[in-house]
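Researcher: Quick one. two chains, 174 residues in total.
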Amino acid sequence: MFVILVYDTAVERNPKVLKTCRKYLHWTQRSVFHGELSAAQYRALMTALRGVIDPDYDSIVTYSARSPDLIESGSLGVSLGGPGDIL
Amino acid sequence: MFVILVYDTAVERNPKVLKTCRKYLHWTQRSVFHGELSAAQYRALMTALRGVIDPDYDSIVTYSARSPDLIESGSLGVSLGGPGDIL
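Model:
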């Protein structure tokens, strides 16, 4: 599955959230990651993040599609870790 | 089409970027919007954003799918303007 993950977490937890996301996904842009994961990898990522965030304060949202072929990407301005490399 | 838009723009341009995105999409989370747009609306949004950002400094990335049915969403922690309302 193709996953886009966005996070909004407290500054003091950002490094741990970043490190966890980097194990599974590619960095797109400030607080955004994307990549292909198996369902098991997706569950493992969610479990790892659950252990890192404060659920009363932080927020993580994912959007997923069955295949990257179902997702088209576009961009304006500078390309950061943009999706161009894998889509 | 279903569109997820993430932006990383200079602080001084954020209000204009936010205002432009809000005309077309729902706010998901800090610097992330989503929503259903026609192809014409998508082009109009991109054109409007092009007039607002500094292309040498700012970055906007979009992910789109033909239909919201192709996208599943998930979340951890607090729900902000989360996608639950329309997905």
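The longest helix of chain B spans residues 39-50.
Researcher: Thanks, that's what I needed.
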